[in-house]
Amino acid sequence: MKALVYHGPGKMAWEEKPNPGIIKPTDAVVKILKTTICGTDLHIMKGDLPDVTDGRIIGHEGVGIVEEIGTAVSTFKIGDHVIISCITSCGKCEYCKKGMYSHCIDGGWILGNLIDGTQAEYVRIPYADNSLYPITEGADEEALVMLSDILPTGFECGVLNGQVKPGDTLAIVGAGPIGMAVLLTSQFYTPSEIIVIDTDKNRLAVAKTFGATHTIDNTDGKASEKVMELTNGKGVDVAIEAVGASATFELCETIVAAGGHIANIGVHGKSVTLHMETLWSRNITITTRLVDTVTTPMLF
User: Fold this and answer.
1) What are phi and psi of 180, to 5 degrees?
2) pTM above threshold 0.90
C-alpha cells in the first residue's frame, strides 16, 4: 500500500509499505477513505516529538471501512463505515475507567506516534471496539473526519478545561483548525464575547463567519493591548492557547483576567516562560490536557 512515512525532522516520503494485518484479537484493519493533517503532524515534522521514529507512518485521524477484524471484536463487522478515534482505549485500565483514555496504559495517542497511523491506504486499529465509532448511512464522511481529533480536542482541552460559562469573555489565540473547533464548541456555553487572535487575515475572516464577536490581527504584536481595550482593562475570563508556541502562551498570560483560566491546547516542543512574578496573586488556573475523546459521541 501507499503511505506517508516520516524519516526524521523535515523528511517525509510517499512510499510503498506492507499492508497491516491483525496482531491481537482486539484489532481491526480499516481501509482509509478520508484522512487529514493535524497540527501535531507538523510538530512531528519539526522534530518536536522525538518518540516518533524513522519509518513511522504518520496520521491519527480518518474515516474508513472495516476490512478485517480480530476474533475478540464484537461491535463491528467487515464492511462497516467507521470514524477512527485519534486516541486508542483498552477500556479496562485504571485510566480508561476514569475516562482518561489519553493515558490508557496500552493505548492513548499511539496512532502515527508509536505505531503506524492513518495517512495510508490501510491502518491497524488496536482495541477496535473502544477506538472506532460507527457511521450511519448517508452521513457526510468528509465532515466526520473532524470528529477523529480536532472537535473533541478543541472542546475538551479548551472549552471544558477552560470552564467557559455563560457571559464569559473568551480569547482564542490561534485560528487554525483547533482554534476554529474551540470557537464552534464554545458557543454551547453562550460566552458574551469571543475574541480570536491570529496573524492570518483569511483565518480571521473565517472566524467571523463561525461566530467570533471580535478578531485581532497580531501581525503588529499588539494583541495584548487590543484585548485590554476591548475589555476595559480587565482582560478575558478564559484565554485558550491553540498554537503551541512560547509567544502565544505568554500572550495568554498577559490577557487573562484575575480569577481567569488559561487552557493550553497547543503541542509545545520547547519550554515556555511562566510569569509567576505577575500571576502569583491573580487567582489564575492553568490547565493542560491531551484529548481523551470522551465527548466524541456527544459531538457526533
Assistant:
1) -65, -35
2) yes
